[in-house]
Specification:
3 domains; Alpha-Beta Plaits; four-stranded antiparallel β-sheet; alpha+beta; ATP binding
Length: 277
């Protein structure tokens, strides 16, 4: 944990990771903070966490610093659970064999009565061991629980949220569209992402199969998205113009690794970020 003064004045060798909990107000502060790692030919990682409302500032820092960020969404609950499960599996492997006779009878009874395979039963045991009894979905776009981000494409350019809504009306009841949130057009203009309640995902995917030239799929990683203006909503207007849902774009540059909302690879010819952050 360091102040801006420390970031400017201290030269500590072999700093491998920098985490900024929010974007700094000015580019110079970002340069000094992230510059504490990846020094003297070494490699390092600079992470910058931010809420969607700070997206404009992050883009400004990226542009003015010459660092190319890679924008990555927050880990999904499944990602966190898998990581915890890996640690639990390693811990189980280290348990002494002396416990097996004590628990063998209960294990055999559970296996016989569950009607499940040994692998599935062990998977549930691992989940319980790390505190999971179910896995909730979470939006990649807004991080809302029990919401899922979908990508719609129509084979033609998408210019506004209104076009997305009119396309959805072709195969979804209009009253269901009140649950659509955060329509954001992709950077290449060929599609749009939006959030829906997780329980309705299959309805959208199946419904799109009955609409010509329309595809809807669940997003595993956000595509690069068009930047929303800082003081305005999307051109779709209404509740769909809420900047709260602006998503992070993506991209890789050569050289450094700097993060904007996730892992990022900073680059930039000739400046001191032309190394791996």
């Amino acid at each position: 944990v360091a102040t801006n003064v420390a970031a400017r004045g201290l030269d500590i060798n072999d700093v491998q990771l920098i985490i900024q909990c929010e974007p700094p107000r000015d580019v110079e502060a970002y340069i000094h903070r992230s510059g504490r790692t990846g020094r003297a030919g070494n490699t390092g990682v600079a992470v910058m966490l931010f809420e969607p409302r700070y997206k404009f500032n992050v883009n400004r820092i990226e542009r003015e610093s010459g660092v190319k960020f890679e924008h990555i969404s927050a880990p999904q609950p499944t990602d966190v659970a898998q990581s915890a499960g890996t640690e639990a599996a390693e811990a189980i492997s280290s348990v002494s064999d002396s416990v097996i006779p004590v628990f063998r009878e209960q294990a055999e009874q559970l296996l016989n009565s569950s009607g499940m395979s040994a692998v599935d039963l062990l998977a549930k045991a691992l989940a319980k061991a790390v505190g999971y009894t179910d896995i909730k979905k979470r939006s990649l776009l807004s991080s809302m629980d029990n919401h899922t981000t979908l990508l719609l494409q129509t084979g033609r350019s998408v210019y506004a949220a209104g076009f997305v809504l009119s396309t959805l009306k072709r195969f979804m009841p209009e009253e269901r569209l009140a649950d659509v949130k955060g329509i954001t057009i992709t950077a290449d203009g060929t599609g749009a992402v939006f959030d829906v309640p997780s329980a309705e995902v299959e309805d959208y995917i199946q419904g799109a199969q009955n609409a010509a030239m329309v595809t809807v799929e669940e997003v595993k990683q956000l595509p690069p998205l068009q930047e929303r203006e800082q003081s305005g909503g999307s051109r779709g207007g209404g509740r769909f113009g809420n900047r709260r849902f602006s998503g992070g774009g993506g991209g890789r540059g050569g050289g450094g690794r700097g993060f904007g909302g996730g892992r990022g690879r900073g680059g930039g010819g000739g400046n001191r970020f032309n190394k791996r952050y």
